[in-house]
Amino acid sequence: MATRCRWRNAVLATGLTVALGASTVTACSNSAADQINYVVDGGLSTYNVNTVIGAASAGAQAFARTLTGFGYHGPDGQVVADHDFGTISVVGGAPLVLDYQIADNAVYSDGKPVTCDDVVLAWAAQSGRYAGFDAATQAGYVDIANIECTPGQKKARVSFIPDRGVVDYNQLFTATSMMPSHVISDILGTDITTALLTNKVSVVEQVARVWNSTWELKPGLDLKRFPSSGPYKIDRVLDGGAVVLVANDRWWGAKAITKRVTVWPQGGDIQDRVNNRKVDVVDVATGSSGALATPDNYQSADSPSNGIQQLIFASQGPLAAPSARHAFALCTPRDVIARDAGVAIANSRLSPATEDALSAGDGVVESAQFNKADPNAARAALGGVALTVRIGYRSPNARLATTVGSIAAACAPAGITVTNVTLDTSGPQALRDGKIDVLLASTGGAAGSGSTGSSSMDAYALHSGNGNNLSGYANPQVDGIISALAVSADPAERVRLLAEGAPVLWGDMPTLPLYRQQRTLLTSKKMFAVGRNPTRWGAGWNMDRWALMR
Hints:
Blueprint lengths: L1 H13 L3 H7 L10 E6 L11 H5 L2 H5 L7 E3 L5 E3 L4 E8 L2 E7 L13 H11 L17 E6 L5 E6 L20 H8 L3 H6 L3 H13 L18 E6 L5 E5 L12 E6 L4 H6 L5 E5 L12 E16 L8 H10 L2 H8 L14 H4 L4 H4 L7 H8 L4 E8 L3 H14 L4 E8 L3 H6 L5 E4 L13 H4 L17 H11 L4 H18 L2 E14 L2 E2 L18 E2 L2
Parallel strand pairs: 1-10, 1-11, 13-14, 13-15
Antiparallel strand pairs: 2-3, 4-5, 5-7, 6-7, 8-9, 9-10, 11-16, 12-15, 12-16, 17-18
Helix pairs in contact: 6-8, 10-14, 11-15, 18-19
Protein name: Solute-binding protein family 5 domain-containing protein
GO molecular function: peptide transmembrane transporter activity
Keywords: Signal
């Protein structure tokens, strides 16, 4: 018992990395349960969390230790090198050249080796260079000039465009970013790496189609197409969308402590499941499940995420014009919404939670008129024209239902009728399909945090042509600012860039930031090694170190 207590105290004090967890769990492993139930934000629609829909889903929370990479996001959102997977060496600085070396014993759960082909596919899909890929973001990958990879080998040399030395290059090729390229090669019956590197258009089109659609999660899926490169692998998908993960016997690193983790999409029954001790870890947006009570045998902690809860406007419909968006923003009670969430109003679009010191003056002046609801100003801006606006969000979510109610009440006197549209599918898809006029979600349209942990990377959600630029916003000046932020580590230059971008974005109003999304992590008191995470990977970042003591 003393050992168990010391272990738990160490977890709480340090945030426990994967490597540390492997060395401290031994004394307790004999009494660990075989099964853990884990509840996450949103749905689990695809294994490929790099598509627009996948990035907005809860897939990253589920698969951080199923699809590994050269790094993972730790408890403070920082990227931690994953030496089990491989190493990165800086070969040159001007231009930036990196060597990625995959571990010799790295192998997928189907026995196929992890190779540089997977690096090439990840780059090709997310670089914006090849048509057809429905990638969520091009951030960082767009700045890679070329990749040297001999198909089937373990080493890739990645060269960046001159003067495009991405500061946060460690965000690239991390956990969940690389899909098993051999699955696509087997489906198409061809060497896709050579086709991608030589831009053989007819094959690239087929690769994009397969990359977009092959990894949908549904009951009865063909497990041959879902191999794992981590300590867990997919066992099956249950009716209702839960995904069962089991220990991967081909994983070459420290073995997972718990043999089976069932990942459940957030539903309206969380409180009942907690009361009945049918769930062990809950990692969701604060307030999304209402006033989630914490029984005596559980513990709960709230913490800020790096994602910004926001209104994302559709590129068509009643709010397509900036003037209509301005009017809608004028009657939106941002102060009330933030107060109900127990946090301050968020104003920055390009430098969210990870850079508070830099963003202190980012948009404060321009945003002042939009802090409190002013229905008279909104009505005047519309010229007396009535509007009906459909706001959608993934349900159930008590917090967002209240938010829509607050907006509806405040905007009614302005002649704006707000309707509440609850979604059981992807918010980004509903916005694309014209089923809603506004998506109420976090960064990139996510139900959860949605953040990469890097403001520079997150800013690409407003870069033209980016997949998670859900409002279809395009402004060359803002594109230039976002591009410059990606390669600048100078605080003074970053402040200047943010100050330059703020008035443009408040004028164009592609989105309306509300507040920094808060997270609630509720766990059984018998759970060990579970830690917060402000990024889209959530608490699942070290799932293989979790233990439920019986």
